[in-house]
């Protein structure tokens, strides 16, 4: 069994099903994984790997775009990778529901309006895991509920959400685990329309000259408490980063840049759920 939650931009909930992944033809090592960014999950969130048969049916998931997103839209010069801010959400006080003043409600409304206005979003990301390790890659979001993360070499994990489920693929081991999207807090980032103060349990709202930050908390009796911190730019009102804290208190931060709102091909988010028979069956 493998434990992914400390190494991904979200902490996957317990696997709903375990599907064999259709083997794929070899792709450039640089064209790695895909997926979400949110967080949830119990300490027992271990997903059993299901070996994939050697016969190779035709690949059904969309390949990585021919060129990585290394330039900004509209001919703008590509931005340098940011240095993610690493908040410690595990130390937040868990008490009665907070009340927010007029300014905080305005700030939360700006974040809600931004999230509701974006339907397609792609760009580059820098991820910092609980161990401080940095990984980079490209991400693609298409609302509602679709996301794909592609890590730069040598990360073998691929993640894709198709609107109802999240799959975590290990390209090296040729396995695929399936999780319900509805149980990941990142669904708020992927919602078609959202009012954070109405639709989520917001426990913190703050702003300064650089960022507007909103912290969402989820409590589940059998899983524990997880948190998602969304940060948008105070001046340009664009998504800057998110931090996810799993029920064990481990933080994963993802900072995004070179954002592009051009329409994406929906085939990039297709998942093959087929349980292919093994040669021994």
Structure in words:
- Strand 7 and strand 8 (211-220) form a beta hairpin.
- The chain has an eleven-stranded antiparallel β-sheet, with helices on one face.
- The relative contact order is 0.27.
- It has a single domain, classed as Clam (outer membrane lipoprotein receptor (LolB), chain A), CATH 2.50.20.
- It has 281 residues and is mostly beta strands.
- Mean pLDDT is 75; it is low at 1-6 and 16-71.
- It has helices at residues 102-117, 187-190, 196-199, and strands spanning 120-128, 134-142, 146-151, 157-162, 165-170, 175-180, 202-207, 211-220, 224-233, 239-245, 251-260.
- The protein is globular.
General shape: globular
Give the amount of beta strand, in percent.
25-35%
How many separate domains?
1
The CATH topology name reads outer membrane lipoprotein receptor (LolB), chain A
CATH superfamily membership: Lipoprotein localisation LolA/LolB/LppX
First and last CA, distance: 22 Å
- The CATH architecture term is Clam
Strand-pairing-aware structural class: mainly beta
The helix-strand sequence is: HEEEEEEHHEEEEE
Number of strands: 11
Looking across the biggest beta sheet, what order are the strands in? Answer: 6-5-4-3-2-1-11-10-9-8-7
- In the predicted model, the low-confidence regions spanning at least 5 consecutive residues are 1-6, 16-71
> Biggest β-sheet: count, sense, barrel?
11 strands, antiparallel
Average pLDDT reading:
75
Helical stretch tally: 3
CATH domain class: Mainly Beta
Radius of gyration, whole Å: 18 Å
